Amino acid sequence: MKKLVVAALLVVGMTTFAQEKMDEPKKQLTPEQKVNLQIKKLTKELNLTEKQIQEIRVIAAKEIELREARKAEMEARKEGQIRLTKEEMKARKAKFEEERALAEERMKTILTPEQYTKWTELRKARKEKIENRIEERKEERLEGGN
Question: Which of 49, 85, 139, 141 is deepest in the core (most CB within 10 A)?
Answer without folding.
Answer: 49
